[in-house]
Amino acid sequence: MLYTQATIITVNDNRDIIDDGALLIQNDKITAVGKTKALTTQYPNEPVTELEGRIIIPGLINTHMHTAQTLLRGTADDLELVSWLCERIWPLQGNFTTEDGYAAARLSVTEMLKSGTTTFLESMFADRYGFDGLCRAVEESGIRGCLGKIVMDVGTYASDPKWAMHPGLVEDRETSLVGAVSMHEKWDGKADGRIKVWFGARTPGGVSEGLYKEMTAISREKNIPVTMHCAEAPADRTFFASHNHTPISYCESVNLLGLSTVLVHMVHLDDSDIAKLAETGTHVVHCPSSNTKLASGICKVPELLAAGVNVTLGTDGAPCNNTCDMLQEQRLAGILHKVSTMDPTSVPAQTVMELATINGAKALGLADSIGSLEVGKKADFVVLDMRAPHLQPWHNPVSAVVYTATGRDVELVLVDGKEVVRDGKLMTMDEEAVWKEAARRSKEVVARAGLTKQVGARWPVR
Questions:
Q1: Which of 3, 37, 159, 221 is most buried per CB count within 10 Å?
Q2: Where does the Amidohydrolase-related domain start and stop, copy by copy (predicted)?
Q3: Would you list the domain boundaries of the chain?
Q4: Which tens digit of pLDDT belongs to each residue from 424-451?
Q5: Which of 59, 166, 150 is nearest to 113 (CA)?
């Protein structure tokens, strides 16, 4: 199939933008990229999809996502992190069933695909949610998923015993670490290679040092990557100090640093932490919406990038963002650091596009196959329909995508050369059935947790 007459943002090594461009897709690969006239002349018998007035970008890569939490959208608004976790999210998640987990995963991947995310990294899917269901949702939907199975053995947050997890979420070594290895053996490489199984370690304070070291040893032995929250809130910084460490010196002490580790949030860092991240090639995920909504702080993205750290972009979960839309996340990433540094040139649109595409691919170890539109790479791309008043006029296509477009402007999405979204509609699952089941199950979870009144409207409803 030839996709023609579009503006193509390739994010290749030269960062080429092709006006009146075309992509030739054969099976699951991109086999030609160039001008429309040249490709239609060279391949006269190929069927054509004309995309005049559209912009094509590489599939967006969301490197931090809690798929279970999409079922809890809007249940914990306007709370700081510890209250958000201990009083709302953990009690709600502790009342999940495996059926709820499957419904949440289906809702998450539906929203992500429809808003242009073609690959995501699940942070730490708990055993009680049903990891098999998450994998089935990825398999059925057509999305590409790196799926972190939770690893933990301590049921508190940071160093305060008052910040305890709901009993329904607490796992031990056998359930979490051994279970993750079992899921890796069962699911890694399935769905035509679209599923990768990761370790999703809990934040330091939620994992004993012995279990961290066992996990990182297995990670190296079996080539299982690791993702973990780190240095998100001031309470995390207090925990590290209580162990006579900075965030990254602690991570180094339990062998967490390296090319196969993706650390999330990374707000409260020292200069020495940034230098060590760069030295070890450890990847960082920036989650601006979550960090601002929970008042956790602002990640030092300009400093991290200047030091040579690979920084990527993630939405985090729906209760601390309210959307899984990576296009909206790009916009905040592009404007937040301008005010935090008082420098409007800080983190420009081009850098944001890299965070959301090729940098994410590097973090996932997939840069040879996704993250840019180049011959030989997987046919993962997104078409944005720019023929609308709220998107016109535009002059710089990268700026238009980063600062103006949202997920509602996504017209077409391909993963592995298959059209999974067409005309803005999901082609692989029944959208209406997905959201209706999720809405019903969300109310049931809230009721089981005894939080119906707490999550409702604060103004009188008549």
A1: 3
A2: 55-420
A3: 2-58+374-426, 60-363
A4: 999 999 999 999 999 999 999 999 999 9
A5: 59
